[in-house]
Amino acid sequence: MTAQADFIAAKDRLLEATLPNVLFDGWSLVALKAGAQALGLPEGEIVRLFPDGGREAALWLDEWADRRMLEALEPMNLPALKVRERVATAVKTRLKVLEPHREAVRRAIALKASPWGAAKAAEIVYRTVDAVWYAAGDTATDFNFYTKRALLAAAYGPTVLYWLNDSSEGSADTFAFLDRRLGEILQIPKLTAGLKRAARHMTGPFEFLRQARR
Predict the structure, then answer these.
(1) Secondary structure class of 195 (helix, strand, coil)
(2) Which of 84, 115, 95 is nearest to 170 (CA)?
(3) What whole-number distance in Å separates Cα of residue 206 and Cα of residue 201?
(4) Structure confidence by residue, pLDDT tens digits, 107-156
(5) pTM summary value
(6) Short-list 197, 171, 195, 194, CA closest to 185
């Protein structure tokens, strides 16, 4: 395991140990200290892993969830599904990964709405929708690369907000909402050139984030 992989694994362990405390202490240093104590880590390790404290850990939750989603999708036979079904399966899998931590997600979203979090929110959403399309087997490299991610972002955000307040069994209502949204957005690239021109305005930030990830 490389040093980078070790660092990521250490951050994951501290995040997972901290998550139960977020319900009571929010994304705070107090919650991180409790997580570190549960792992037997010195407090100095918190600073090494999350220099910006609890709010940085809150953003790491998305990184962690993206990877857990991809791991859960690996044994599934996604190529046997239609593209829309692959995308839906990936998003649903991510929400299932986060299901035990719904309140932590809610509080993380509140942080993203702050001036500090807003600067990072677009990158986080891009990373997630890019991971979903990657899992769905997307190989686009042209204009469609950007429209697919921009349009999925427009469906993913409302779906998460719906899910946060969904009390239906197994999040059935959220998944039905997601299916409806995907049914709408995945038709957009097939519509008029006017709609394509409108979508083109959304590609600028995604191109920047794509290059930044490289």
Answers:
(1) helix
(2) 95
(3) 10
(4) 999 998 888 888 788 899 999 999 999 999 998 877 788 888 999 999 99
(5) 0.86
(6) 195
